[in-house]
Amino acid sequence: MDRAEKVWLGVLLSVALLANALTLSPLVPWQRWLLWSRPIPAKSYTIEVEGYQFRLPAQGIEVQAGEFVEFVVTSHDVTYGFGVFRPDGTMVFQMQVLPGYQNRIVWRFDEPGWYHIRSTEYSGPKHSSMWVPDAIHVLPAQEVAR
Amino acid sequence: MSAAVAVIPEKPAPLGWQEKWTLRYAVMGLLFLALSGFEGILMRTQLLAPGALHGMEEILNHLRPGNPSTEELYYAMLTAHPVVGIYGFAYMCVMGAFYFLVPFLLKRPIRHPRLMVANFWLQAIGVMICWSAGFFGLFNSLYTLYWPLPVSYDRVPLAGSIAFVTGAAVIMVNILLFSYNIFSTVLSKSNPNRYRIGQFLRAAFGISRLMKWLGKEDREAPNLDYNGLPVFIVAVARGSIDTVINAVVLLTAGALILVYGLAALFRNPLNPLAIDPLVYKNWFWWGLDMVADGNVLMYTAGTWYLLIPLLVNRRLYGEAVVRTVIMVDLLVSMGVWSHHLLGDRAQPLAMRLLSGQFITWGEFITMGLTIFASLMTIWLARPVRFTPALRCILGSIFGFIMGGTAGLIQANVGLNLVLHNTQWVVALHAHTLLLTGLGMLLFAVIYTLVPMLTQREIRSGWLVQAHFWLWMIGSVTMAYGLGAAGTRGMLRRTLYLDGSYGPFLAVGWVGAVMVGLGFLAFLVNIVGTLGWHNLLSLVVPEPGPQERPLPAEA
Q1: Which of A120, A126, B172, B448 sits at 20 to 30 Å (Cα–Cα) from A103?
Q2: Whole-prediction pTM value?
């Protein structure tokens, strides 16, 4: 290995180390609780999926900005996706929903508002219709204090 | 070899057996690219203007059973599209090129020449069965075949499912036959001590090198550079290990789907949830990723290592290092699959971190060294002549850098949470690697091999320029347009019927059309170079391989 190759290998290794350290660090907001602090959620909502339908809790999903909430999603037939989207269509987070598993994720919403749920995994020709508008209501944090 | 490129006689000799079959592979591969590309443009059109294809759908529905919905047709096309693109276009071209180059470089005929003919037909038939399963049978489970969707017959037609896995089985068995032929040609290389398969595998995975490092030299092992084989052959041989694993794993998945299909056909359905979907998904992606993150990287590296020194007339820079890099690539490919399961919270975190993220960065190191060696070879050979092939190689390096970087961003435990299954993944990563990276590489091979095979120069420099720039700008435009939509939440594998993300899709559509126009320029140029006489001679059968067993004689 000549000097130029050694220098280049050093550059590659440094970039790899730096990129991994940065993206696993708490600088990525959700890594703080998904990787590091592992908080106990204030609420837990169970959502079932079957026949292209999300079955949400009867009382609806209402959380407060800043609190940790757990979603437990189970499928009774095929693999789906559980994606939460902002009103402007951008994605907040998503996970795969494997049948026969309790698929769990803990999240903390920072912005109040209404959030949509959409299946993020193809589950058959009617998959595109798996969209539930205004499924999650996030209340402002100050309303909690009041 | 350089002489074969440079010396172009005034009156070319008629094509020989080997040359004809190599060209047949290339032509069939390009036909599949045209089909896959046409489907791609149709799907882009459907996303941009939902309902725009209703007229065409109605006409084509006369050829299909029932009255399928737009969604059924879209997802059936989405299922067939990658199979035609990867196993039709890419594999066909790779097979044709390797069947020419491996015996050429080894100076030894292909071990089983008739298998070359069988491989051609089996690959074409297998791909067309899969395509037909979508077009006629409306099989719509997508290439991912996530369990238990392919056996959920309320969503996926039973006949289509059986037809698709039958076609896939033909393709996989054919790939195993191809790999056997390549291995047996490489292993039968004349040397004082022939390789045994165990020795070959030990050397391929670096076991013999490790033993030597530990002070326990394996005296039975062949020497560490495959007895001085050209580095391209080393890459082909090591990459083909991934090819074999991929074919075996996909065969097992196909067999499982077939068993369920036949049981349902004979009215004795099996319980789909008897198979653990997470275990299946791990097994499936371990095998499938042997292509995406395995053989394609090694085959690509090998082809750069072969063509660049040839085109710039300089020895490959850092050859000793790149031989090791190919071995490391093989090792990395064994453990890299979990980045496809980063969205699965049921997958253990340790697996997501280790196999999903950290080992994926191993590819950054190996591809980084590969690209460094390739670019240094060109740099040190200055001044170089930018032939069509060299131009395309630089385009392919650009594609691998861009698509690879996007891949590293999404193969991240944290960032995948907002990128998984978005258009980012398929546009900026997959299509950039396939269209800009692999596509340009295969064009470089064709621009190199056509003059070698036909003893004719590429006819129009202007069309080469048009092809190169339309393809490059088009593929990058498409990737950025759709990738930007992905960062705004647009999902892949989802047909939006409300016209969402219109401006981004319009940019992507323009890029796709530019790619199509670039391909047309390439096709016109290649047809003009080959000439109608040569093209028509490809459909005329000839006696057999005995006439010209060794392509070097050409």
Answers
A1: A126
A2: 0.92
